[in-house]
Design a protein that fits this description.
Elements (H helix, E strand, L loop, with lengths): L1 E8 L5 E3 L4 E3 L9 E4 L5 E8 L1 E8 L9 E6 L2 E7 L7 E8 L6 E9 L8 E12 L6 H65 L16 H13 L11 H8 L10 H9 L14
Antiparallel strand pairs: 1-11, 2-5, 3-4, 4-11, 5-10, 6-9, 6-11, 7-8, 7-10
Keywords: Membrane, Transmembrane, Transmembrane helix
């Protein structure tokens, strides 16, 4: 906000003085008047509304007295001390004190003379009160402050956005890793279960005999016929033996000198109850 300066003369009724103050002034002072005191502890009190206050005095030159010394307080809180700086000649309308910024409300300002001799004379000329003007646009200072606040907010938003940009990929990556681990362990568990089931089935299935040793050796035809005849006598059924290669050959084209026995002859002998002849071997004539 813009600020206004309001001048309050030393003779304004708003200023309250303690005893030991006197009136003086020339055309060089504001409104041709000043208030003078050389008593330590004398005060001037002013109630004002604004954000700051300044004190202006007249400073005598060398030989016209010693520098002025005073202390200041706002709302019963000390705000500083001040000592004037003398020059070779009398100085008018000199800023003696400027308060720090205060809240924009009503305040009580107290000036106390701290001179400790009759030569420490204080020449009070006027006060300047700094007030806010709510009817004017904001000053460049206020605009700078607003810009700084906007920049701060923008920086904060930017920092938040940067953090989100970093966190989102990290969280997505963690989620993918968790899903992959879950799939891996599930697959591993299913594989182990399948292996256990296969092992159980393997234990339950009897071992198949795959190795068969074929019969080796010569067939003794007469002994076979004798065995069959005995089984027939005992009442067991037996399938007539098929003709051997020797019999087939003898039935078709018997070789010279070979005595053969046909299957039909063996069957006839079995049917009439006679025991078949006993042969031990084939006789070659």
């Amino acid at each position: 906000m813009a600020t206004n300066v309001v001048i309050v003369d030393d003779h304004d009724p708003a200023v309250e003085y303690s005893p030991a103050w006197s009136t003086a002034g020339t055309s060089d002072e504001y409104d041709n008047t000043i208030m003078v005191t050389k008593t330590a502890g004398s005060t001037a009190t002013l109630n004002f509304s604004g954000i700051g206050i300044g004190v202006y005095i007249t400073v005598p030159g060398f030989g016209g007295g010693t520098p002025a010394v005073a202390s200041f307080a706002i709302d019963n809180t000390p705000t500083g001390n001040s000592t004037s700086t003398q020059g070779p000649s009398l100085q008018y309308k000199i800023l003696f004190y400027q308060s720090p910024p205060v809240l924009n409300r009503d305040h009580t300002f107290v000036l106390t003379n701290r001179g400790n001799s009759t030569t420490d004379i204080l020449y009070l000329d006027y006060f300047e009160i700094l007030q806010l003007d709510s009817t004017t646009p904001a000053t460049p200072v206020s605009s700078t402050t607003a810009k700084g606040a906007t920049t701060s907010n923008a920086s904060s938003n930017k920092s938040t956005s940067s953090l989100a940009i970093i966190l989102v990929p990290v969280l997505c990556g963690l989620l993918v890793v968790i899903v992959l681990l879950a799939v891996f362990f599930r697959y591993r568990g299913m594989k182990a279960k399948l292996l256990d089931d296969s092992a159980g089935r393997a234990r339950r299935v009897p071992r198949q005999i795959t190795d068969v040793t074929p019969f080796e050796g010569d067939v003794d035809l007469p002994s076979l016929l004798e065995l069959l005849s005995h089984r027939n006598v005992l009442g067991t059924s037996a399938t007539p033996p098929r003709a051997t290669s020797v019999e087939k050959r003898s039935a078709s084209t018997p070789g010279p000198g070979i005595i053969t026995t046909s299957s039909q002859q063996v069957a006839d002998e079995r049917s009439d109850g006679r025991a078949p002849p006993q042969y031990s071997t084939a006789v070659i004539q």
